[in-house]
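Hi, here's the filled form for the chain we discussed.

Project: internal
Contact: R.S.
Residues: 317
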Amino acid sequence: QQEKEDLQGKLKLREHLSQTAGKSEATPAPSKNSDLEMKQLQCKLKNSNNEITKQLNTIKSLKNEVQEKEDRVRELQAKISRLERDLNMKRHLIEDLRSRLKANQENEKTSNETLESLERKVKALTEDCSSKKTSIDSLKQRLSVATKEKSQYEQMYHKTKDELEKKDLKLNDLESKMIETEYAMTELEATASQQLHGLAKQTGQALETIQKKLLLTNDKVEEFMTFVKALTRELQQSVQELRTKIKQAKKMGEVRACQKGLSQECVQLAASILNVSTTDLEEILEVEDDEETAKTKMEFEKDKEWLQYIQKLPEAQ
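And the returned structure, exactly as it came back:
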């Protein structure tokens, strides 16, 4: 800019000098040196103007780049803030999932503990039942012994009655003793019969419920097995039917394509070359490929294996 100002000052000074020289002299003749200097100064002025415009353009481009970079920085900062928010949300979600997992684990522990307690109760009940059975057996043995003793006492009573009619006092004592023993025996019999009746009721009810449940489960299992077997058979039959239909469609398409491609004259010519009739030639064209028959056999075998496997599954599990 300083160089431009100097050049402009020099140019103005030259113009002023030329004007003054023109006024002083009537027919002025501009010298060659001053013209050349004027041209040089104008060229320098143009160059400086061009340089200034270039510098201004570079400054504008740099400002635009700075503005773009600032916008990019703002976008990146906004993206970073969004990512931080997402990260915080994911952390909260992970913490929530961990708390849920802990709660589920605690619930599983409590359910396992309740299962163990129920198993212990079942074991205790089975042991109690076995002990009650043993006590019932012992009571039955006692009853049999008591009945035997009763029969023996009756026999002794009849013998003593015949032999000791004179001894009334002893007989009365024996009668009182017999009455006491009979009363005790009746009490024992009543208590034993009550216990036996209650146990029989309980065991009968439990057996009835278990039998009903077993019958229901067996019916369901049989229904499921029959359903699975019928379904597998139907699936195999439908697959085989579809395969046969696809093969027939392929055959018909190939035969039609072959018949369309061959004219009647070609067919007769081929029959005459092979020394066969046209119908035999059509049968030869309709013959299946060995690879295709082998493939169909393999597929049929695989279907049979699959059917056997599926029908064995419900029997195993």
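Let me know if anything looks off before we file it.
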